[in-house]
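Input chain follows. Return structure tokens only.
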Amino acid sequence: MSAEVTVRVPTILRTYTGGEAEVTVDPSSTSGGETLAGVLEALEANHPGIKARILDDSGALRRFVNVYVGDEDVRFAEGLATPTPAGTQISVIPAVAGG
């Protein structure tokens, strides 16, 4: 049974996805399971290099990257342990600085 989820990729990271704005991954086969961590592992397996742009060296979400599972900011949910059931849409959104 497939547990595919859709990941919306910001313009700045589309060099890793061949220009695709949305990619589909199946996190159920990763060690992270059906969580955001599993989605990022599956994303990295299909699009090498992208995970390092989302997570820092300690494995935490980078400060300037916001990730939403559905409409929920994972920083206010369960972080990388946030569940990602089949059909979920995940959005990776770089923070915008300005004044």
